[in-house]
Batch of 2 targets.
Target 1
Amino acid sequence: MRLVTDLPRVLERHRGEFASVIPFELESGGFTVFDFTVSNRDLEQVGINDVAEFTEYLFEKIVAGDLPVGIGRYDEDRVLYRHSPLFDESAERRSIHLGIDLFVTGGTPIHAPLEGVIHSFADNARLGDYGPTIILTHTLGGARFHTLYGHLSRSSLDEISPGQRVLPGEPFAEVGEHHENGGWPPHLHFQIIGDVGGFTGDFPGVAAPSERERFVELCPDPNLILGIPGL
């Protein structure tokens, strides 16, 4: 995987120029930020392996905010990945989250933050996986990079093709429900990737702790695009 070493600086120079990925003004605040680490003792009382119970827990907290949006943090060592063998494929469990999650209701439209083209897409249908996923390719300030959108609706993959142009602010997908998004409460997993290498329609969104430094360098903070205050 070739690393675009100056990508964070390029994105920082263009901060504030990106279109909103979801149709809410996140820069105004009023959203709920979740803690999915072991320090959140609430998670011991919630059936995080029961998608209906977990969804109810999350959205009860979301409705208490000013915006109907919940935020799952980047570079967080999570305890959530216990309901699927997907994260146990090696001796070390993967737990470091490489994107930002935007918890919104199913069917919420997803917009391109900047101009790009569709690199690839796939339905990663295993339990705990992304479900329908789209990867876009962008060029900005001389840097070529990708953004990944996971946990989409299956209809998001209809009538699209690699190389198709997507304009800034254009709706091109929507958030999927739990029965189609890999078995998760409805949300968008948004991730920046310096280079996807040979991956198509998929890329690791969670890393093993021993590989954290490498993957965080390869996948810089998505908030450089999202611009969410307080993260």
Target 2
Amino acid sequence: MASCGGLDNKHPTPHPGTENKEKSTGQASVSGFDDISKQLQQRRDEHLYRSRRVVGSRQGRLLRVNNKELVSFCSNDYLGLAGDERIAAALSEAAQFWGVGSGASHLVCGHTDAHHQLEEELAAFTGRSRALLFSSGYTANLGVINGLTGAGDFVFEDKLNHASLLDGGMLSRATLQRFRHKDYQHLADLLDKAANSEARKLLITDGVFSMDGDRCETAILADLARQHRAWLMVDDAHGIGVLGATGTGSVDPALYNEDDVQILMGTLGKAFGTQGAFVAGSDDLIETLIQEARTFIYTTAMPAAIAAATSASLAIVREETWRREHLNDLIAQFRDGAEAQGLELLPSVTPVQPLLLGDEELALKVAEILELSGFMITAIRPPTVPRGTARLRMTLTAQHTGDDVTALLAALERALNEAGA
């Protein structure tokens, strides 16, 4: 493989005119990229190096990787809609009308009828007054936190929140307070210390924690926020579309209104099978974000065709309740089978089913053995998860079958025995 700027641990080609100087002084070339090369090698040595896979098929139950067909148990396509023909047809038809690009940001000329319709549909789906589209969940979280808080304010976050939430808190210049995972007494203590402050207080949690698969306690958080005059933001990226009879997620509009949970974020690239994200809440919240959220103001709008495709997806999410029912059956089957084998899964009733292995090298080895057996499962290692908690993060989707789950359990047992786990 050709080198690029010394990134392959070899010395880069000297800049013209430096060769003679190096020979005369006897000193090796020193490049700013040498440190990067060492860091990369250290990642390899610690079994923390990340590599991309090149997939040669559409997203679905089966993926073709390196000309080999694998049963995928690592996708966030929970309802199996990313490869749905109806959504693809809606995208194609909309692209013929709207074209491919949106041309500009929402505030210039990029906000189309398709975007506006989707926002109204998402607001109705979540039981909120309005919704606002963002290009990704990451930009939505950064935009909300930095649009609503700043120096002198307080942001309170669960320690296992998604990286985008933690980054948003750090970048906001507010005082960031992280409470122990789902330790709401610890959160209450932190809120008490800020009780006399008139500054804004923003309490943030994942709805479903993406690496552990457990759920936040929405009712407890809403009560704490109310007591301490704080805003509550729920990032429901892994819950929206999946949880609840109609897929409304962790913030059921029949239970929680805009006064209980002021800010709801949901992504469109997981259960909805498309791309992007939205924030839902009151009219004042959405108008404030339009004025203040830099990741909304200064970003080109998602293509209108994607918005139209998501409208088609949203209709399927609402109407095809069998997808959630089947998914819940698979989750129960997997957990029952794992328990029968003595596997200690983390306590999750969501499609995210992590098997904690602890050691990074062991997690990689088990994942490699599983791939040889025809299963694609990702080994999750630090810094995505804390040191000592490397794991296999298995995700179930509505496209899987009961036979797939049975085969996975058998393959897991063989792989763990072969790896010496």
